[in-house]
Amino acid sequence: MSNAHHRFAPIQRFLHWLMAACIIAMLFIGVGMVSTVAPTYLPLILIHKTLGVTLLVLVLIRLALRLHYGAPPLPEDLPPAIRLGARLSHLALYGLMIVMPLLGLGMLWAAAYPVVLYGGIEIPAVLPQSDRAHTLLWSAHFYLGFAFFAIVLLHLAAALFHALVRRDGVFGTMALFTLRNRTTPSE
Amino acid sequence: MKQSGNLPRSGFGSLVLIAAVLGGGAAAFAYTAGWLSPGRLTPERMIAALAPPGGAPLGHRRNHAKGICFTGAFEANGNGAELSRARIFERGKYLAVGRFNLGTTDPNAVDATARVRGLGLQITAADGEEWRMALINPPFFAVSTPQAFHDLLIASGQKDPEAMKAFIQSNPEFAAFAAWAKTAPWTESYAQDAYHGLNSFIFTDARGGERTVRWSLLPAAPAVPISQAELERRGPDFLEQEITERIRTDGPQRWTMVTTVAGPGDPTADPSKAWPEGRRTVQVGTLVVQRIEQERDGPCRDINFDPTVLPKGIRVSDDPFPAARSSVYRKSYDLRAAEAGSYPRTEVAKP
């Protein structure tokens, strides 16, 4: 547990990067599939649904790991505004990771579409068909998708800022392989 | 943001790199979303092309907007099991919900103005698995590709007569459809029309064998030809009144579902090309339409007859239309669900 003060646990780091790749793929597949009538539309939809449900399972595991292992503390000298921004953006990322698949499933159920994943796995509907619910869920899924991408970009910018500009070791806490020597900004 | 003068020397370069990563990411995203490709055929563009000059019919399907619901059964005779392992082909009786409709974007169109008639159908297997389809009465489709269908909508909506001429020149397959539209007899009833799936799909049998097939619903009621003028005389909503009355007095109406198996080299990717005569056909069952209900409160209203909702044992082929239809129907559904207030049910919707 003492290592937890400097880095995330290996399983946390692994899940972070796995999910990062999948989420970025999901966001691109999402905007791509709704803007085409080409035959790729169908495989893209299938991947989007399958990966979405997979990510829902993964984020629940990840949340449990986070509650168990916790997170390394941020550097002492990080300005309070940035500290608050970090906390809020991570809350938003967790919230979106949990909510987006649920909204996606909900909007399909509310439109009475069978939810069939790769391999023919069918997720039974827990919502009845409803114009109002579908419209609400669809709009939330659609617009929050763009918000999700914006926050992912912000997260990426912050990560690079920590890694390249501040060099305060924050990036190293989540880095998968190489871990540079921790350099303090006040050296 | 700037720390007290302790940015490393590479600080500026790092900031440029960060900006480049963000800019590149955003640009790739915009490209994927089609924002940088105005020429891409999106479902929005297809729906815009469908919209009549007076505007889209709010709350209604964006095409085949006029229709009436039916309920009934699909009675599988078991013959389909040799072609596909879909449960729906096992001998038995399965719930069917559907919709007779007209190929028009106007929900109040006069029946005699709609050359194309259609039938949307959802069959539900015993375990709840669904098969949805939307069929039309011409024996082949008007054009070869979704792009050509979009171009047809644009050309036929223009006042300039040269537009259609130019369209036909670049899409010669349309001539066969134009000939059908001009010469094929009209009938006096939805019950007298044959409805064709037109798109090809792949059936997988229990041993994994695959065949590319198309299917049709052939009516039991003999066709009574009628002129377009006579149909017009009978009234703007004659077909809905007729099918309601027919089922009330004559009882359920039937169609035989016939699947046709493609031969080697048949054009499976082009629904504008009929397959040659003499291809193997298998009668797989009978659609029995037992009851008619007005669409406004009817059970078909909320169904998107997306032809890619298929049971295990049936999947899409190299025909590009089912994917395009799925994409556009979904957009149409999203729109009409959001506009449900413009087409209110007469009763309060069930909770």
State the fourth-level CATH superfamily of chain B: Catalase core domain
Instruction: Say what the CATH topology of chain B is.
Output: Catalase HpII,  Chain A, domain 1
Strand composition percent of chain B: 15-25%
CATH class call of chain A: Mainly Alpha
What proportion of the residues of chain A is helical, as a percent range? 55-70%
Q: What kind of sheet is the major sheet of chain B?
A: 10 strands, antiparallel
**Average pLDDT across residues of chain B?**
95
- Structural shape of chain A: elongated
Which residues of chain B form runs of ≥5 with pLDDT under 50?
A: 1-5
Radius of gyration of chain A: 19 Å
Give the H and E element order of chain B. Answer: HHEEEEHHHEEEEEHHEEEH
CATH topology (fold) name of chain A: Fumarate Reductase Cytochrome B subunit
Q: Give me the oligomer status.
A: heterodimer
- Report strand order across the widest sheet of chain A: 1-2
* SSE order of chain A, one letter for each helix or strand: HHHEEHH
- The helix content of chain B, as a percent range, equals 25-40%
- Gap from first CA to last CA of chain A: 28 Å
Which structural category do the helix and sheet elements of chain B fall into?
A: alpha+beta
* Total strands of chain B: 12
